[in-house]
Design brief:
Largest sheet: 15 strands, mixed
Protein name: Anti-sigma factor
Number of helices: 7
Number of domains: 2
Distance between the termini: 65 Å
Helix content: 10-25%
Number of strands: 20
CATH topology of the largest domain: Jelly Rolls
Radius of gyration: 20 Å
GO molecular function, one term: sigma factor antagonist activity
CATH class of the largest domain: Mainly Beta
Keywords: Membrane, Transmembrane, Transmembrane helix
Structural class: alpha+beta
Order of helices and strands: HHEEHHEEEEEEEEEEEEEHEHEEHEE
InterPro entries: FecR, FecR_C, Ferrdict_sens_TM
Organism: Hoylesella buccalis
Shape: globular
Amino acid sequence: MKIDKHLQTLWEEDVNKMSEGELHQALDIFRQNRTIYSRSVRRRSRVSTILRYAAIFMLPLLSAILVWLFSASYYANDMQLAEYYVPKGYIDSLVLSDDTKVVINSGTTIVYPHSFSSHAKERSVFVNGSCHFEVSKDASHPFVVHLGNVKVRVLGTHFSVNSYSDEEQVVVTLEEGSVNVSDSIQTMTLNPNEQLVYSRTAGTMHKQIVDAMAYNSWVKGGLNFTQEPLEKILKSIERRYRVSISIAKDVDSKRCYTMNFKKGETIERIMNVLTFVSGDMTYTKDGDRIFISNR
């Protein structure tokens, strides 16, 4: 397949060194030869521009997609990509062509091939947000989840990833089997009930022991927080309940809390529990806007 000469020049200059503008330029040219299909919970329509990713993905994930698009396996097999977006307030699921089951959390986008090619070395997908995977075993074709500059590589297992572009950390939690998590310079292996936390700013990885089933209770509609900072808890609540939460300057957003909510809890119930547990916070609600302050 013939590749546009300008696009090839950008690639040869090393995609990892490109500016955001150069990446978008390359993607703009690439869209002339490819069509990406877009599906969402509320609407399922075809779109003909890859530039939409600029508003969805951080630069590292744009780079990861572009690297993969230029790979020999992609061009050899002429794969078509699908984009699945789950809006805030929803949880949805899909089954990939290899029978891998994916549960997709609120405010998450996953990009994947319509059909995994038997000629490709890997089964690659790209995630911005939170997903739970039950990967179909295929020893000849490892399953790789791209989270910006972090990759999760497995053969067949159950695990979750949390990699929202507006959060500083990437979190990988393993239920069954084994996974390798890596960036450009380091690799760690996870065993069941281990969780890897990657810092985007520091580029560091560390592991910790967790109750993976409890952590992944969101898959069944619950919410579980174990020593999570308030700011992260509030982001999860915003995505799940489609609300906007702001806090007063004197509220400690770094303070950690442990709470567990079952499926079906109302936003009022959750806010009442949160403010009660804090001992010193209160909140007001006006439509879909919530304001938290100290008493």
